[in-house]
Design goal:
alpha/beta; Alkaline Phosphatase, subunit A; eleven-stranded mixed sheet; four-stranded antiparallel sheet; 14 helices; 17 strands; binds calcium ion
Amino acid sequence: MRRIRCMIPPAAAQLGWFGIFCWGLFTSSLSLLANPQDAPAADREDQDAASPQSPNIVLVMADDQGWGETSYNHHPRLKTPNLDQMAAAGARFDRFYAGAPVCSPTRASVLTGRSNRRTGVESHGYALRLQERTLPQALQAAGYSTGHFGKWHLNGLRGPGVPILSSDSHHPGNFGFDHWLSVTNFFDRNPLLSRDGRIEDFRGDSSEIVVEEALQFIAGQAARKRPSFTVIWFGSPHSPFVALDADTEPFMDLNETSRNHYGELVALDRSIGRLRAELRSLGIERETLVWYCSDNGGLPKITPETVGGLRGFKGQLYEGGVRVPAIVEWPSHIEPTRIAKFPACVMDMVPTLVELVGAQADSLLGVQDGTSLWPILRGATERRNKVIPFSYQDEFAIIDNEFKLLQLGKASKHYELYNLEQDPGESEDLFEANPSIARRMLVDMQAWQTSLNRSLSGLDYPEQSVNAENPEPSRWETQERYQPYLKSWGQRPEYQSVLNGRD
Ligand SMILES: [Ca+2]
């Protein structure tokens, strides 16, 4: 169903009052004209492309799936028929970047549109600042029901995933999710999850469990004619590697770790098939945008390798640590089998979706690092006009279309420059050989670091300071609020490495 809603100019702050007045005349004349059934088909299509809509939105993210771990990207052993079908039915990004080379930072970037260190999430296990404004909050204000399913990892707790308690100051409900079935960190077969703070015990593969629960949420909202925003963050193929026996059969000649890692990806792919099939049987696939990606690059010590020949792995700013699979499917609006070479990143999700639904332009913090991918999803081919910035553990990188500048090393920093189109494996450092590009990108790097320093001083927030109450990363088993659970959880396989030896 298509509807005309109040349109917000995408950059109201830059238009000035005269611009807003003109925009108002434009939108009111549009609404006077706007019976879409009266318009010729081509015009209707143009209106669909440009005007705010309320599709259901489903963001799906794997945990540690590397760039090379799909069969559409020619993995030598792994078959991902459902991701392949999704890619064939929608737009596939072949240069899509995580926010950082580890998990929590990318999650913060997905929800805020901001590079991770601006948000307080320096590395894994850091808490997202409550001062941040999030996409689910913006979508709530735009009339959406919002739900989170799976791994959270934005509440400052480290260690294997445990149910998030209702007393947690940083649970998903405090960042804009109406409903949540979530766990602090990675989770595996037969998990304990927390439904809005109440602990529930599940049986089965973790990916399939969260997809079934998410589908119930989506179907329930569809029955109420309410648009839904659903976040599904898998625990796979992150360690511990525990796959169903049947899913490991194609990999019996691999070592136990690799066999189970790839087995988890088989189940993850199957859950994508289940999600897509059920959206179709509910009859809502044309009104539902599904955006799939991974949270960081591939893991080392897995065979065959996980990064599709790129340099580096999870934890590094080289391509293997940050470039990830990404697919966007929306059958009524994105033509099939679109392959985008445009360099895109998780920070682009917020501006893309905010533009799409016409959410309030001021519903998010003003300092944003992404750009709307809506033109690219509609088939435009253009150069990116904004660098993709990274900051992780005292190291920095920026990507400007084909070029990437890295600032590596802690005590003695040094720079490396690569042309990613000619040299995707980052084998030939051009920093000395191409001084004019190097100089230009050093200016951009300086601008990125200056902007980041303003964020670190709290200047992005209305308070102009950082609230010091944000929790430092800690392990859940040391927290007072988790003590009542430790005895019974000690029997569970996923917690034995943490709780063994305790009373
Ligand atoms: Ca991860």
